[in-house]
Amino acid sequence: MRIGDLAEKSGLSTDTLRYYEKIGLIPRPLRDAGGRRIYDGTILRWIEFLDRLKATGMGIRDRLRYAELRTLGSASLAERRSLLESHRRKVVADIARLTETLEVLDDKVVLYRRMEAGETVDPAFESCARTEHGAPPNQDSSHHDRRTGARPRADRKA
Amino acid sequence: MRIGDLAEKSGLSTDTLRYYEKIGLIPRPLRDAGGRRIYDGTILRWIEFLDRLKATGMGIRDRLRYAELRTLGSASLAERRSLLESHRRKVVADIARLTETLEVLDDKVVLYRRMEAGETVDPAFESCARTEHGAPPNQDSSHHDRRTGARPRADRKA
DNA sequence: TTACGAGTTGGAGCGCACTCCAGGTCAAGA
DNA sequence: TCTTGACCTGGAGTGCGCTCCAACTCGTAA
């Protein structure tokens, strides 16, 4: 399999694949007589897993560390496990936050629908929706230069 | 409330608050006689909500758009709602992916524990854990210069 | 009065994760 | 043989989201 095929199958660009190789996320493949990368199909499972780690918020440093540990074989099993366990904790926390946010969004959407329908909104419901809606409070529209954001001070440096 | 107080209460740095103001995420506050920003406590709810959007993966462009719509008052309710609804869909998808990943991580952790204990791993179980473990396949360790990554080709350009 | 700490500004710098490019090599098909 | 088109390399550029900095002002407490 050449880099173009792998790109297609993995969903990454050839540039990204070469970049991952450069930084050490994926191992250096063998080359054919012309110097072109030849990949074994098993690399796809590794890329898929890396992708999963990335998509769930693992930073590049940890992915790199995990990749590095992987090359060390079975001696690194315990550390790899601990890395995954700590990522697992982050994933659990993220799920909690997302679930919470889902509720907030739902409340707000309902509130907006009511407001769109011209309903007067019950203040109790408003606070339940944790709303911040409406025109921003105490906006200073008069004292700033639009381009620079500089305030005309009485005598700056004069 | 001055910027330092707001920073403490919101968990953002004063630099970040000024940056948010500069790009338009938060409204320009009033100033005191000395030109210092004076904040109304209600801004905290807005910052909190922005933070929630950011923490759940909404990019800066959409947050900016939402902030902009907010300044337009009730005329923008429908568009704000649609923005939130589309974010909601992303959040739902993210929860699904995280939940899936949680399973993959759990499988891998169990697998690692077994391997650490010196168990021979049942191949069927291995594939269930979607494993990519072990030394990387077909690593090319011999043909590259360590510093440049350049392969000594037989007669490059000679 | 002076020293200090909190605030002001514009602008530079940074880490992440790519993405693009110039200028080249190579293999295979017309 | 010639021409594609896929691939190679090192390095520059990009967008996000801050973060840090220099150089300044202001209000207050010793």
In N-to-C order, the SSE pattern of chain A is HHEEHHHH
CATH level-3 fold name of the domain at 1-58 in chain A? Multidrug-efflux Transporter Regulator, Chain: A, Domain 2
Tally of individual helices of chain A: 6
Q: Report the average pLDDT across residues of chain A.
A: 82
Low-confidence stretches of chain A: 124-128, 140-158
Termini Cα gap of chain A: 71 Å
Strand content of chain A: under 5%
Category by helix and strand content of chain A? mainly alpha
> Could you state the oligomeric state of the chains shown?
homodimer
Helix percentage range of chain A: 55-70%
Which CATH class of the domain at 1-58 in chain A applies here? Mainly Alpha
Largest sheet of chain A: 2 strands, antiparallel
* CA radius of gyration of chain A: 26 Å
CATH architecture assignment name of the domain at 1-58 in chain A: Orthogonal Bundle
The greatest inter-chain interface is formed by: A-B, 67 and 67 residues
